[in-house]
Amino acid sequence: MLDALKQNVETEIEVLREVSNNIRRLDYASPSERKLLQTSIESLRASLKLVNNSIPKLLEEISLTQKLPQKEKATGLEKIEFKGEEAVIKVTLKKEDREIFLQQLSINENLIKKLKKKRVSTEEKVEEFKAARGYLKFSQ
């Protein structure tokens, strides 16, 4: 359980880093990008709350004394691995929070894809200078 706790804390740090990056990008975003970034931030905050809510249950399972061997009891926790475009997220959550967490992460992934598509389309609109036409060259 100690490893699961460490993994959850690392995941929280990664999510906070992504929230921070999105907040910084809000200052320079267009209005349409601003809406996507705000939705992404809200989705990340919701997933952060879910991860944070599972920590007390993990702490209950950790003890300093070594317990006698016995049948493993149901803890109500579940290990989840989410493979996104940028990273793999491994978390231990309450079973009832699993679907909500995966939904929030998929929302965030979809918004990131939309933001990337908008940036690619704006970069493609840059036009190059055309060569001067023949009559302009002839007049000089």
Summary of the model, kept short:
The protein is mainly alpha-helical and 140 residues long. The protein contains four helices and two strands, in the order H-H-E-E-H-H. The protein has a two-stranded antiparallel ribbon.
End-to-end gap:
81 Å
Instruction: Please indicate the count of domains.
Output: 1
Shape: elongated
Number of helices: 4
The helicity comes to 55-70%
Mean pLDDT: 78
Q: What composes the largest sheet?
A: 2 strands, antiparallel
Strand content: 5-15%
Q: Spans with pLDDT under 50 lasting ≥5 residues?
A: none
Given the helix and strand composition, which structural class is it? mainly alpha
The strand count comes to: 2
Placed side by side, the strands forming the largest sheet appear as 1-2
Order of helices and strands: HHEEHH
Cα-atom radius of gyration: 24 Å
